[in-house]
């Protein structure tokens, strides 16, 4: 089995109300990545991706574009030890 990694991501820009969470959730599920995504009170979107290094990097790359209506200004990423996320969900 491929080593798992975990990326904790904060995305800034026009990323709320533009289907960013739903698109992130669907894309993560397509790639077999575990974790979650949610809107923050400060206007950013926060996400955690767990999976193989390749699939997690694909999700981090995705965050630089986001959904079709999004405008991404900045993506902050930190890497952490996996915490056993199972499945991918949008948090409210």
How would you characterize this protein structure?
The protein has 92 residues and is α+β, with helices and mostly antiparallel strands. The protein has one domain (4-83): Alpha-Beta Plaits. It is 25% helix and 41% strand. It contains two helices and five strands, in the order E-H-E-E-H-E-E. A five-stranded mixed sheet has the order 4-1-3-2-5. Strand 2 (34-39) and strand 3 form a beta hairpin. Helix 1 (20-31) runs antiparallel to helix 2. It is globular.
Keywords summarizing the entry:
single chain, 92 residues, Alpha-Beta Plaits, five-stranded mixed β-sheet, 25% helix
Task: Classify the helix fraction into a percent range.
Answer: 25-40%
Number of domain units:
1
- Low-confidence segments: none
Q: Work out the strand percent.
A: 35-45%
Q: Which architecture does the CATH hierarchy give at level 2?
A: 2-Layer Sandwich
Mean pLDDT: 96
CATH level-1 class: Alpha Beta
Backbone structural class: alpha+beta
Number of helices: 2
């Amino acid at each position: 089995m491929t080593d798992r990694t975990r990326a904790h991501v904060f995305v800034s820009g026009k990323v709320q109300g533009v289907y960013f969470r739903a698109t992130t959730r669907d894309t993560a599920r397509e790639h077999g990545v575990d974790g979650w995504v949610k809107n923050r009170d400060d206007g950013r979107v926060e996400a955690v991706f767990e999976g193989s290094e390749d699939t997690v990097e694909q999700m981090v790359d995705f965050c630089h574009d986001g959904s079709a209506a999004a405008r991404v200004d900045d993506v902050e990423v930190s890497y952490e030890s996996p915490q056993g996320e199972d499945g991918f969900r949008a948090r409210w």
